[in-house]
């Protein structure tokens, strides 16, 4: 990422950096900002592995019941960060406090200056976002603390025009904007029109989307 930015800036001075990212992934950092895990993507289904005779996915899904869908709008899936983070804490000793970052957050941190701000589309993909309240779910963080013994911090939800960090090169300080979900970028990039067209995704995570106002819904 840093090399791509440097190459692009050498070709034509950058004015800003826009990111999109897979939504269902995360990495875990300690209080000093050092990685406690590799990047764990939506393809990782470690939550299906048993710990003390029970797999984490069934444990979390069973405790939450219907409330997960009511909070996040999504049915339980093994690859959700919620599930894999709970499994990580059940199977590996973790510090009492840690920070959860998306891929865009990590890239902003690698650039040396970051606010840890998250776009709601990326935050929602972690299965930790309360859609009605527009904030990180206190209920889900409480469940993670109960299962792992650790408290997890996340960045605050922010609109796409907000700066999440800065990339520096040759005296320039280039804003890195809050990374948005890859599916939302695909919907907007396919020239869909607000309230006029229907976007059908027939692949992984199949869904129908309509752009309402300024963002897909």
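-> sequence recovered:
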């Amino acid at each position: 990422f840093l090399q791509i930015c440097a190459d692009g800036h050498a070709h034509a001075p950058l004015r800003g950096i826009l990111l999109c990212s897979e939504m269902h992934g995360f990495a875990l950092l300690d209080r000093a900002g050092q990685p406690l895990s590799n990047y764990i993507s939506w393809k990782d289904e470690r939550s299906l592995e048993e710990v003390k005779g029970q797999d984490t996915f069934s444990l979390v899904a069973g405790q939450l019941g219907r409330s997960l869908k009511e909070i996040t709008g999504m049915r339980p899936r093994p690859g959700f960060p919620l599930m894999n983070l709970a499994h990580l804490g059940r199977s590996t000793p973790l510090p009492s406090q840690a920070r959860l970052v998306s891929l865009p957050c990590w890239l902003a941190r690698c650039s040396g200056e970051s606010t840890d701000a998250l776009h709601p589309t990326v935050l929602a993909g972690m299965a930790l976002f309360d859609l009605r309240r527009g904030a990180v779910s206190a209920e889900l963080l409480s469940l993670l603390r109960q299962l792992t013994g650790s408290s997890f911090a996340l960045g605050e939800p922010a609109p796409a025009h907000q700066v999440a960090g800065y990339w520096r090169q040759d005296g320039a300080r280039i804003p890195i904007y809050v990374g948005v979900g890859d599916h939302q970028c695909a919907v907007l990039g396919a020239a869909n029109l607000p309230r006029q067209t229907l976007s059908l995704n027939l692949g992984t995570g199949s869904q129908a989307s309509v752009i309402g106002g300024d963002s897909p819904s």
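Residues 22 and 183 are 8 Å apart (CA to CA).
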